[in-house]
Write the structure tokens for this entry.
Amino acid sequence: MLVLIPLLMMSCGLVKSKCDVCDGTGKVICLNCNKSGKMNCNNCSGAGQEDCSWCNGQGKKMCTSCSGGGKENRYDYGYNYANGGKYEYFFGPFPCRNCNATGQMRCSNVSCQYGKVRCSKFGCSNGKIACDECHGTGERKCITCDGAGEK
Ligand SMILES: [Zn+2]
Ligand SMILES: [Zn+2]
Ligand SMILES: [Zn+2]
Ligand SMILES: [Zn+2]
Ligand SMILES: [Zn+2]
């Protein structure tokens, strides 16, 4: 008689049918991310980069020494046109040394590249974040069979 007990349990299991929603796997495709498990980061819209806050995405900043004019007033040697074009030491406008007379300085943020920095959102990798709905697996537990795979 004892031998029959496992056989009965087995036949009971066969009565249950495979869940047709998940085809017996207990899992269904996550539609939120279309099974990729990843979604575009809402902070950087999937670009993986965002505008640098130091230079507002410009990659450069106005020179603070010359206020963008490219010239600064200082004592230096040069041709003094106000004094007949003589080469002398005088106080006057000279090309700004801070910005090489361009009026602009490169952004001082070392991680800034052409005005862009890596996205600062936690968990963002190359513009992608793990899907909240399936926690990055791409699959969700089948609610029809509660993940059992059969009903
Ligand atoms: Zn199912
Ligand atoms: Zn991002
Ligand atoms: Zn910058
Ligand atoms: Zn300057
Ligand atoms: Zn998902």
